[in-house]
């Protein structure tokens, strides 16, 4: 898993204060609403909505909030009309960045994302400029302290997973997009509970980044993640462990 993806997981675990949790809820509400609008309000027949709802539950979002977000998406309640958008660009030292966002104002969001990039040593690219450097894959995270590696790997492969790796205290099950939900169901049927699952942009080749460049990149990634409209930021950077640990301490 690329350094930034690892950084994102650590940040997710550390986001426990009210301000951070409120921002996470806000982004999840947008995702739930858009998913419900595009694919309907029943998670059993809408894979994107099912993933968004599962993620919201994992973050301990109240069920009332989830239900209201679904109803806003389906039009049963009035709400803001959000749209999905992606941006491609570069960070310090030419690191590739793939940014997903959900917005009610495309002009505002692109201007603010461009400003954030330029302020922090990056720049906005054109569509297709970096997307070719990533593959869209499913990732399912399992607490390594609860299960034997062989048991998780066997259940994952039987369900159709591509591979499994270990990242510190978690097993990460890797899938293609088409088998993402099938593997989740297979793990559950095999008695393996997972803490989190996501569809992510995984870099084909990683770029090692350390020292001052790593510090500058982390500052940029943090600024982008902090933007209300930005849902996810992916990079092809393998960030120096020491720099990452100091930034998150």
Describe this structure in words.
The protein has 249 residues and is of the alpha+beta class. It has a domain at 83-132 and 205-248: Alpha-Beta Plaits, CATH 3.30.70.980. Helix content is 47%, strand content 24%. It has nine helices and ten strands. The strands form three sheets. A four-stranded antiparallel beta sheet has the order 3-1-2-9. A four-stranded antiparallel beta sheet has the order 5-6-4-7. It has a two-stranded parallel ribbon with strand order 8-10. Helix 2 (18-39) runs antiparallel to helix 3 (47-58), helix 2 runs parallel beside helix 4 and helix 6 packs across helix 7. The longest helix has 22 residues, at 18-39. The mean pLDDT is 89.
- Are there runs of 5+ residues with pLDDT below 50, and where? none
Give the C-level CATH assignment of the domain at 83-132 and 205-248: Alpha Beta
CATH overall fold name of the domain at 83-132 and 205-248: Alpha-Beta Plaits
Bin the strand percentage: 15-25%
Q: How would you write the strand order of the largest sheet?
A: 3-1-2-9
- The end-to-end span amounts to 21 Å
Average pLDDT, rounded to a whole number, is 89
Please outline the major beta sheet: 4 strands, antiparallel
Which range best describes the helical content: under 10%, 10-25%, 25-40%, 40-55%, 55-70% or over 70%?
40-55%
The arrangement of helices and strands along the chain is HHHHEEHEEHEEHEEHEEH
Number of helices: 9
Shape: globular
């Amino acid at each position: 898993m690329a350094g930034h993806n690892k950084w994102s997981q650590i940040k997710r675990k550390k986001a426990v204060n009210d301000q951070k949790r409120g921002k996470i809820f806000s982004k999840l509400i947008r995702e739930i609403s858009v998913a419900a609008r595009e694919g309907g309000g029943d998670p059993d027949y809408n894979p994107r909505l099912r993933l968004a709802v599962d993620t919201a539950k994992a973050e301990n979002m109240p069920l009332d909030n989830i239900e209201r977000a679904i109803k806003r998406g389906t039009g049963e309640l009035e709400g803001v009309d959000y749209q999905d958008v992606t941006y491609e660009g570069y960070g310090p030292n030419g690191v590739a960045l793939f940014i997903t966002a959900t917005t009610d104002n495309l002009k505002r969001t692109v201007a603010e994302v461009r400003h954030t990039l330029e302020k922090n040593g990056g720049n906005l690219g054109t569509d297709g400029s970096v997307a070719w450097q990533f593959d869209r894959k499913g990732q399912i995270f399992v607490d390594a302290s609860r299960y034997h590696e062989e048991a998780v790997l066997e259940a994952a492969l039987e369900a159709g997973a591509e591979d499994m790796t270990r990242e510190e205290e978690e097993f990460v099950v890797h899938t293609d997009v088409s088998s993402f939900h099938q593997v989740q169901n297979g793990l559950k049927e095999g008695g393996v509970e997972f803490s989190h699952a996501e569809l992510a942009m995984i870099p084909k080749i990683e770029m090692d980044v350390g020292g001052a460049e790593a510090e500058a990149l982390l500052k940029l990634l943090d600024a982008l993640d902090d933007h209300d409209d930005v849902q996810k930021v992916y990079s092809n950077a393998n960030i120096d462990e020491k720099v990452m640990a100091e930034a998150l301490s």
